[in-house]
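Appendix B. One record, verbatim.
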Amino acid sequence: LQDLNELNRAYQRGLVDLVESGRYDSHSNFTVVLQPFLRDITLPLMVREDGNLDLSYFTVDCLHLSERAHSEMAIALWNNMLEPVGKKQAFNNFTYVRTKIHLPNFMVLAVTGLLLGWGITWLFLWRRFRKMKIEEKPREEKAEMKGTNF
């Protein structure tokens, strides 16, 4: 287990070195931001009321993570993405409390709402304008073809 932890730490140091190398700083439309919510992770080994360990963070094979652990990590990742660079949480306390989910600040919500409103209004008006143009087109009347009966 100690070797595995050391390998994990070396991998994390390698990621930090890669991001801080400046390799990704030359693009104006691309960036890399580390989300360190798993840096200092330790899964809790809680004892249940019956005296057994709470293994609800693992699947039946005790190797893979369960839905509960995945939901905890998803919340931690979401919260990390909303935190500013340099002030990101580097741990997860696995409390399984849904109230710890961070929400975007008011300005982000306002701008998002404004953009969505603009987009929906544009789509509605564009479709209406297109429908009006189609109705305005003069309909070509079919010429009646009368033939001679030879």
